[in-house]
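Subject: for your reference before the review

Hello V.,

The reviewers asked for a structural picture of the protein, and I figured it would be easier to keep everything in one thread rather than splitting it across files. Below is the amino acid sequence we used in the manuscript, unchanged from the supplementary table.
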Amino acid sequence: MEVHMRKCLTVLFMTFLLVFAVSCGQKESDDSKITISVIPKGTSHVFWQSIHAGAVKAAKELNIEVLWVGTATEDDRQQQIMLVDNQVINQVDGIVLAPSDDVALLRPVKDAVGKGIPVIIIDSELKKSEDLLTSFVATDNYKGGFIAGTKLCESLGGKGDVIMLRYAEGSASTEKREAGFMDAVEAFPGINVVSEEQRGGATKASAQAAAENLLLRFKDADGNLTIDGIYCVNESTTYGMLQALRRQRFAGDVRFIGFDSADALIEGMRNDEINGLIVQNPFKMGYESVTAMVKHLKGESVAKRIDTGVTFVTRPDLDQPEMKELLFPDIDKWLNQS
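And here is what came back from the structure prediction:
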């Protein structure tokens, strides 16, 4: 009986080894396709949806898999950290990340790179990470803010009181836009920045609430607005300010420069409620970041910094053929395939 039991155990063990070997060979075959996780700051804004579409386009062309994993809002740092950690556990081939905080995401990025998973940062810089990263793919955000400041001041003839609505603390991309704006204004001694400390927060609702409160501070006894110009630094703050101006019936009465494009913002421009938008190319950002990661994984050299461009758009530009792809990328075409 004992001999028989030993034989049975030996057969079972050998069978297990055979099944294990076959399954390992099958896993290697199934996992041969490159898998890249793209982790945005959030998923609700059109900006991130455009990045998603660009990433999917690159994935289709390169025959790889893109995993789109993101938080609902842009201020959920802990959840984004968990998402990065989970992709490391899942052993994806590469990570493309738009960090919601320029310090908090450093630890998970270090962990990923330390475990052999390359990381490309998009949109917003990560402090003290230059030696860790494969590349940084983004807008020149300082340049965008500087253009906004220059255009606003010029449109006011170099004189007047202006306000800036910031985004959220720890967001490197918008902090660059804020710094660029403030530096541009210094060249116009007749321009006074009467408020630049208020933040709109991560959602359109919080941005609108902040904008409503900000406008209330600059009404005279007759209910008239006492400021001449407004600058907002991203999609949600621009949208929130537009809605606040409409609610208080000041839309079109003040020079207003925003950042990013979305249907609601373009409508505001067509109605002369927004006088200019600093427009990024998020579709290109998604496309170029995934393409660069695939090149790196295949042993090709990749630039450490890829600038995806920035454009100042006014109402006459909206119907120009060359602006169509920039302002109205066919997001649904790519996301419906994913």
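For the response letter, the relevant points are probably these. The domain at 141-279 is CATH 3.40.50.2300 (Rossmann fold). The CA atoms of residues 269 and 315 lie 6 Å apart.

Happy to draft the paragraph if you're swamped.

O.
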